[in-house]
Specification:
The two termini are about 35 Å apart. This protein has helices spanning about 15-20, 55-70, 85-95, 115-125, 140-155, 170-180, 195-205, 215-220, 240-255, 260-265, 270-285, and strands spanning about 5, 30-35, 45-50, 75-80, 100-105, 130, 160, 185, 210, 260, 285-290, 295. The protein contains eleven helices and twelve strands. It has two domains: about 5-220, Rossmann fold; about 240-295, Arc Repressor Mutant, subunit A, CATH 1.10.10.10. Helix 4 links the parallel strand 5 (about 100-105) and strand 6 (about 130). With about 300 residues, it is α/β, with parallel strands linked by helices. It has a nine-stranded mixed β-sheet, sandwiched between helices. Strands 10-12-11 form a three-stranded antiparallel β-sheet. Helix 2 (about 55-70) runs parallel beside helix 3 (about 85-95), helix 2 packs parallel to helix 8 and helix 10 (about 260-265) packs across helix 11.
Amino acid sequence: MVKVVEVLSEKYPNVLKEALKKIGASLGPKKLYYKGNWSEDIFKNCLAVVGSRHLTYYGRKATEQLVTGVASAGITIVSGFMYGGDEAAHSAAVKCGGKTIAVMPCGIDLIHPPSQKKLYQEILDAGGLIISEYENSTPPQTFTYVQRDRIVAGLSKAVLVTEAALESGSLITASYATKFGKKIFAVPGPITSEVSKGTIKLIKEGAEPATEAKDILEFFKVLPSSNKKSPSPTVTLFEDESSNLENKIIEQLKREPLKADEMARFFSVPIARLGTTLSLMQLKGFINCDNGKYYIN
């Protein structure tokens, strides 16, 4: 069910009101349409998490690791619901039992992108919020993404940029954060990666590098949680040959993601046998594969 909060209402988030005063309150949304759990608590401590739509393996794992630690400690994760960095942030928050707010670039009655319908419902089922300044089925346009970014930054006490190219929309969110006087965190990335050039630029300009959740939680003055959902699967050691290969694969993938042919050469086993073992390990939930490279879940 869609509800609405107007700017003059006591329910309108004060953190957003105060941020918008710095760029002219008249430029802010007069109404916020929403679905889900609108409460004072959900807006109390918010971290915006944004990243490239073309998220790399590195970017996804960094997002999952940081968001899991932060959301588990009670910090609300705010993002823009697009595929890539936004999706990874929302998903990680939901999986660890945290709260998340999705700010949409379209009318409140649309699910955009439609491929994320399942995630949309998971956010609501987990006690999160779907927010938009646009009513009904207003389609997204270029300017509505930028408008959305000011809400994402405005609702949050700090912004975390996980990956961003130099022309990334994530840097627009960071730019709003600067105008609002918000703290900016950025994940250091490989200097050879196009989607790390934006985060490296932010760090050069004064953003604080974030390499673990503790970096962010210290800013919020919140202690890490000792009760996290979705722990990494444990591997039981057995003596048979097949399980010994599994154990070797696990140990190697802890160091770095690898392709099947790389592991076949490394372990000196036939590629057919290795492929069977990798498939079984995926079914057991020990590992996963992205762009041809296997990694620990």
